[in-house]
Amino acid sequence: MGGDMIIAAQSGGSGAFNLLLLLAIPLVFYFLLIRPQSKRRKEQLQMQNAIEPGVQVLTTSGIRATVVDVDDDGVVLEIADGVEVRFVKQAVMQIIKDEEAEDLDDDNEEDEDGDDDRVDLAKSDDAEDEGAEDEDGKADETAEADEPESEPKGRSKVKATGKSGA
């Protein structure tokens, strides 16, 4: 039994390697996880402190808005004409540059004007006649004329006209 311990002591002589490995793991964690996260946090704080009225921003919930007022810990954002909402500064994810905002607005205008891309999902008379027969070749008389046809509804827009009382 004493001979086994001597063999184990001779083969485990890489104490320096174990020490190096023990020191390398925290360094890897620091450079791959902790340092980049703290760097992003500093950049985010600088961006949030640089917010000023009139700037286009994007919140963490995906709302694009214009900054109206800046307080110590909060901002007042205008999300539509006459609709102002108060957020904490941490809710601002990024400041949108003017070129990006104009590109996004151009895309929205094309979507609103582009009715040519619509697909008509209304049933045609031919499709109703084919679907009205069952496997015997007889027409299904109960479902034909009892129900009125439903028409597809167009796009509707809601416009905010004033501030709410709340």
From TrEMBL:
The keyword Acetylation does not apply. Its main location: membrane. GO terms for cellular component: plasma membrane. The chain crosses the membrane at residues 15-34. One of its GO terms (biological process) is protein transport. It is found in: Cell membrane. Residues 99-118, 126-149 have a biased composition (Acidic residues). Pfam families: YajC (PF02699). Keywords: Cell membrane, Membrane, Protein transport, Translocation, Transmembrane, Transmembrane helix, Transport. The keyword Transport applies. Residues 98-166 are annotated as: Disordered. It is a single-pass membrane protein. InterPro entries: Preprotein_translocase_YajC (IPR003849). Belongs to the YajC family. This is Preprotein translocase subunit YajC. It comes from Actinomadura hallensis.
